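so ive been stuck on this for like two days lol. basically i have the seq below and the ligand is zinc ion, smiles is in there too. i just want the complex predicted, nothing fancy, no docking runs or whatever. if the output looks off dont worry ill sanity check it later, just need somthing to start from for the group meeting slides
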Amino acid sequence: MKKKTKTAKPKSKKSPAGDLQNISLVKNVLFKPARYKYIRKQEIVKGCVFCNSSKAVSMETLCVYKSEYSMIVLNKFPYNSGHLLVLPQAHGGDLLKLSSDQYADLMATLKLACQAVTDIYAPAAFNLGMNHGSSAGAGIPEHLHFHVIPRWAGDLNFFPLIAQTKVVIETLEQTYQNYIGYFNNRVSS
Ligand SMILES: [Zn+2]
């Protein structure tokens, strides 16, 4: 990887596509500095990003909890502080193909995630759901995942429409520490 320098490069050999990439990079640095290094790390992950998350509970994989068949992972691009994904560890995009044990474990883990969101963030409500398949809007349809999103009155309604961005108060590091502390305490108590 090339070392970054602060010296401006000559503009003459840049392609229009290169300019666009640079613009989006600057936007990330300016407005979402906490996410920037994870965007860079995720770019080098080969294969399914969720299968990568199943390898270990860590800040790098964004996995905060693993049960026998399931796991809880931070959303790399949260809609709100505390946004979780709950998913089977096994790769697959069809809920109907889960075994009874996998399904029961997934539902129990989903409930646990809802409990963690409630205990840590005390939201007024939360969105809970899954886009099953690409036509339903799933971003990664090949690996099932539920979203658990804490909500507060008026939190996401206005700003995303006007500024085409989202207000996320916490950094991913803070969110990770919140959940790791919660689940570690749960295991040891
Ligand atoms: Zn996968």
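The chain has six helices and five strands. Residues 4-33 have pLDDT under 50 and may be disordered.
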